[in-house]
Amino acid sequence: MTAPVTPLLAADVIIRPQSAPDRVLLIQRRNPPHGWALPGGFVDRGERVEAAALREAREETGLEVALEALLGCYSDPARDPRGHTVSAVYVATARGEPRAGDDARDARWVDPADPGVPLAFDHALILGDYLRYRATGEVAPLRF
Amino acid sequence: MTAPVTPLLAADVIIRPQSAPDRVLLIQRRNPPHGWALPGGFVDRGERVEAAALREAREETGLEVALEALLGCYSDPARDPRGHTVSAVYVATARGEPRAGDDARDARWVDPADPGVPLAFDHALILGDYLRYRATGEVAPLRF
């Protein structure tokens, strides 16, 4: 069989502090596309998506996070200017304070309803879905 | 940037008839790995995951399905003997009777609690998660 060509796969994490669940963590990206984003990155072949989410959170923020739920799979072909990338986005909690690392230049707790920084990718859409999840428990709508 | 190497991405669909929601549709695979499986297949680059689920359901069963929810993302590196493939699995409903097509040799409504046929991949695990979803509304647990 010829190897199929499928979109790249990433995992991103919405991290809220256990002590202040109305905040989420954004990182300032070191590499293009620039701007602020949820911690996350590409899934390695041989790695579970959940494990990639934990690893990327650790590498970019220094936090050991606890995943709580899968918010959704984001797959708009235009969502990443580097090429079609599908992201599994998880909601997680963490204790402690972040330390920006790896591909992150800075890390900051923000109000997801008003982050106050320019967001990369479709992360504004994702934060909108997260606000709805926080209010209702409903995960991201399916999109076509 | 060197293109990252990530797992392949697939979409699979648990289809239940509107008239008999205690049944789900399995197809008999034409290609290895042989056995019975949920309708599904690889996501094309440039295609949304939801669109891939609809397309694969149509190609393999002739049914136009309505996606209802994302059950989970299945990413055990050993779940597909052809190589690491992550699958987004949706729950859907359909009207009408299936017609096996494309990569499917046959299509059959089964009781998900007792399919009576050998299942390929991790589709027995997925059907277990689906039974829990049907009973409780809870989606698949995260797995590490």
Automatic annotation (TrEMBL), chains A, B:
<dbReference type="InterPro" id="IPR020476">
    <property type="entry name" value="Nudix_hydrolase"/>
</dbReference>
<keyword id="KW-0378">Hydrolase</keyword>
<dbReference type="Pfam" id="PF00293">
    <property type="entry name" value="NUDIX"/>
</dbReference>
<feature type="domain" description="Nudix hydrolase">
    <location>
        <begin position="6"/>
        <end position="131"/>
    </location>
</feature>
<comment type="similarity">
    <text>Belongs to the Nudix hydrolase family.</text>
</comment>
<dbReference type="InterPro" id="IPR020084">
    <property type="entry name" value="NUDIX_hydrolase_CS"/>
</dbReference>
<dbReference type="InterPro" id="IPR000086">
    <property type="entry name" value="NUDIX_hydrolase_dom"/>
</dbReference>
<dbReference type="GO" id="GO:0016787">
    <property type="term" value="F:hydrolase activity"/>
</dbReference>
<protein>
    <submittedName>
        <fullName>8-oxo-dGTP diphosphatase</fullName>
    </submittedName>
</protein>
<dbReference type="InterPro" id="IPR015797">
    <property type="entry name" value="NUDIX_hydrolase-like_dom_sf"/>
</dbReference>
